[in-house]
Amino acid sequence: MAENLPKVNSLIEAAGQNFDPVNKIHEHVCGFHFYSHDMSRQVESHHYCSHLKDEIRQCVIYDSNRPDARLIGVEYIISARLFQSLPEEEKIYWHSHVYEVKSGMLICPFIPVVPQAAVDKAEKVVMEELIDTYGKTWHFWQVDRGDPLPYGNNLLFGTSFDDFVSVVLIDIHSFLGPPQLMMAFLDDFQLSQKILDDRDRRFNVSTAHYRKNRENIHPKCNRDLKADHWASRDDGMAYQTEMKLVEQKSLPTKEQRSVQK
């Protein structure tokens, strides 16, 4: 299949397909997420975002910024005003961005030739917009545990791609793992320093520098405690998705449609 990609791509280009939704992406933000039920599983997440409206960003999330990056999730980002309009039971799926911005861990990667002064000015504008927003994030591909494809069955933890064919023959239901609800950090020492340092080294950035540069960025609204639900619970529990069998609402059969006529 891979050997046919150049031919397929050239045919698509010749046909002139429309890529307007993808072409609207204009912002790259790199941060870290953790699984709502397990803070020890921390994932570097590269958000490529477009504005649906002034108060709504929609972001596709990759595990890196390389050409072979894997699409691992999506995040919807809304303003504090829109967040306040949500039903109370919906707010628990969202997280705040105040700490991510103030801590410096959330960055806007730029190409190396851009002067640091220009980077500081540009990313500060983005962070001033993000600090009062809320995000709802789903990860489909659990790359942190080595999954070769986006499945979710814990029994396949650590399965290599070479083993994939035999695994499918054993358990085709391995692909039924649902998307996972992700959350953001709220305090120092929650994110692994090793993971943070590795990101900073690869992008030649300093989280400490960005923290200093954002000292005068302050939220205009108090953080809604309905967001970041895990932080306000005292029972050690968190919301997460799981699959269950439900009744299917089927369409009328051909015979039933004939009777209805």
From TrEMBL:
PANTHER family: OIL BODY-ASSOCIATED PROTEIN 1B, PTHR31360. It comes from the Eukaryota. Pfam families: DUF1264. It comes from Funneliformis mosseae (Endomycorrhizal fungus). This is 12547_t:CDS:1. Belongs to the OBAP family.
